[in-house]
Write a structure and sequence with these properties.
Elements: E1 4-7, H1 13-21, E2 26-31, H2 41-51, E3 56-61, H3 66-76, E4 80-83, H4 89-99, E5 103-109, H5 118-122, E6 127-132, E7 162-164, H6 173-180, E8 184-187, E9 192-194, E10 197-198, H7 200-218
Parallel strand pairs: 1-2, 1-8, 2-3, 3-4, 4-5, 5-6, 6-7, 7-8
Antiparallel strand pairs: 9-10
Helix pairs in contact: 1-7, 2-3, 6-7
């Protein structure tokens, strides 16, 4: 299977370079002040310039207004906008129309009923991202290292590409892909040594494990018979 790997919450040149060198397809930058991964616009500008077309740049925001989105876009020049808040379908459509960039909408998942909104968002987004629903007391909607029951996505066909997120790491990525058959995966806290602090070896290990798992799923089953 063809798999896209996104490393999110990058905030230093060193971590970004490792993600790019290890073969990340997408690199994510967070514009959300409550997050320990939040970037100032000037920092985002410098990191974005460092990518040099080696991966797609993703700008993550949470219920941001047009002015904030415009500022983040001006700084990063992203290839994709990730809306990770409670943006309704109409807002997703408006962002797409206003800024002319592909939009990935995050959907928080805890139980099967949470998937009822898929059709509404699939009609206006370019990609969906499924992440674990945060606890009620959480101050941010993602990057918490929480996973959800991946079996809820088993045999799912939302009609557009989807990305799996939430609690992924090098140890569980193979099982997550086996169950969901997601065509893209997203990791942030699973490649950190502390909240907001990326671990370079974990970045490398995650990308390698994801690639190996994808190759295993793509390999044809072989049946040996004897006459």
């Amino acid at each position: 299977m063809t798999l896209s790997v996104k490393i999110c919450g990058l905030s230093t040149p060193e971590a970004l370079d490792v993600a790019l060198d290890a073969g990340a397809d997408l690199v994510g930058f967070v514009f959300f002040p409550p997050s320990p991964r939040h970037l100032a616009f000037e920092t985002a500008r410098a990191l974005g310039e460092r990518v040099r077309g080696r991966a797609q740049k993703v700008a993550l925001s949470v219920d941001a207004d047009d002015a904030f989105l415009a500022a983040s876009i001006e700084a990063l020049t992203p290839d994709l906008l990730q809306l990770h808040g409670k943006e309704p379908p109409a807002r997703v459509a408006a962002v797409n129309q206003r800024f002319g960039l592909p939009v990935m909408k995050a959907i928080a998942v805890e139980e099967r009923a949470d998937l009822a909104v898929i059709a509404q968002y699939a009609a206006v987004a370019d990609r969906l991202l499924f992440d674990a629903r945060p606890p009620r007391a959480a101050t941010r909607p993602g990057g918490l290292g929480r996973s959800f029951d991946w079996r809820l996505l088993e045999n799912l066909d939302p009609g557009l590409p989807f990305m799996l997120s939430g609690g992924l790491d090098a140890r569980n990525i193979a099982e997550a892909l086996r169950i969901t058959r997601a065509d893209a995966v997203d990791v942030s806290s699973g490649v950190e040594r502390a909240s907001g602090v990326k671990d370079l070896d974990k970045i490398r290990a995650f990308i390698a494990a994801a690639r190996e798992a994808a190759r295993g799923l793509a390999a044809p089953n072989t049946v040996t018979s004897s006459a």
